[in-house]
Write a structure and sequence with these properties.
Blueprint (H helix, E strand, L loop, with lengths): L1 E4 L7 H16 L3 E4 L6 H9 L2 E4 L20 E4 L6 H9 L3 E4 L3 H15 L3 E5 L5 H7 L6 E3 L12 E7 L5 H12 L3 E6 L5 H14 L4 E5 L5 H13 L3 E4 L15 E6 L5 H15 L2 E2 L7
Parallel strand pairs: 1-12, 1-13, 2-3, 2-4, 4-5, 6-7, 6-8, 8-9, 10-11, 10-12
Length: 299
């Protein structure tokens, strides 16, 4: 029996960069805050919390920096997570005299710039994605009256015969992006401008995962349950292999699932660290006395 690991899985550059920045700041300063979880992975968030990173959900939860000479010391740095923050939030941080350390993914920043430019050019900005996702909320803050559409049931939000400028949450799949564009195109509009803002690394992980799950009896997708890109991986794999399971880590595995299986596949979202993947694969091998294999993953 074999365990195969997807060629592309685990940390992407944007996530790895955010973690590196956080670790560097924590080594230099005592009071470091993250405006929302730095990434959607509880294991990583807990590790950084032990190192001193304080996660808050609102700017008001961060003590303002006090003037020099004050007996009480104010907060040090505020980390903008990989998902980014809205301009209004950044402005509030500056008003409170806080030091900002920006770990926003460069691709997310690109979406923010595009949304602002579309709005400046007179387009009604439309984001294909999850309205509750922090990346989308940050982009929404870059233009006035943005419309977010998750699926075709949301298209009723779009104004008739409008000048539409469409972007997409970076972790959506090309298939969903294309499907939604087709549905939008069938509605009435005066102009339609579409800019592809999908993350190529997310697409590579999706393609690699789908390819692997065709070769295995059971497929495991590792990553935070709140992680949009990991959920997307699981959804895509589930369409191809019904024996697909989204788990945060090894602790979430019901060991009975692997009984009688000949080949198991493992992939992971872009916010899942290598050690979680290695731990899962190692324990799976020991549990099933599998022969380890590879689906061609680059180390």
């Amino acid at each position: 029996m074999k365990v195969l690991v997807a060629q592309k899985c685990g940390f992407c550059h944007g996530v790895r960069n955010a973690i590196t920045i956080a670790e560097k700041i924590l080594a230099q300063e005592k009071d470091v805050y993250s405006l929302g979880p730095i990434i959607h992975n509880q294991d990583v968030v807990q590790q950084l919390a032990k190192a001193g990173l304080k996660t808050v959900n609102d700017v008001e939860d961060i003590p303002p920096r006090l003037p020099c000479g004050s007996r009480e010391r104010g907060s040090g740095s505020v980390l903008i997570r990989s998902h980014g923050a809205a301009p209004e939030q950044i402005a509030k941080l500056k008003q409170r005299g806080l030091k900002i350390v920006d770990a926003t993914c460069v691709l997310v920043k690109r979406v923010q710039r595009i949304a602002k430019q579309l709005a400046d050019d007179g387009y009604k900005v439309v984001i294909i994605g999850d309205e509750n996702h922090p990346e989308v909320q940050a982009v929404m803050g870059c233009a006035a009256d943005v419309v977010v559409v998750a699926d075709e049931s949301d298209l009723q939000k779009l104004p008739e015969n409008a000048k539409l400028g469409v972007v997409c949450q970076t972790t959506q799949s090309p298939e969903h992006f294309g499907k939604m564009l087709g549905a939008i195109g069938r509605r009435g509009f005066s102009q339609l401008k579409v800019i592809n803002t999908l993350c190529k690394e997310a697409i590579k992980r999706q393609e690699s995962a789908v390819q692997l799950c065709k070769q295995v009896d059971i497929m495991f997708v590792l990553g935070g349950l709140e992680s949009s890109n990991t959920r997307r991986l699981a959804e895509l794999c589930k369409k191809v292999n019904r024996q697909t399971y989204h788990l945060e880590n090894w602790n979430g595995l019901d060991k009975r699932l692997v009984f009688g299986k000949n080949v198991a596949g493992v992939t992971a979202g872009a916010s899942t660290p290598d050690w979680i993947i290695a731990e899962f694969v190692g324990n799976l091998v020991r549990l099933g006395r599998f022969d380890t294999g590879s689906a061609g993953r680059n180390s």
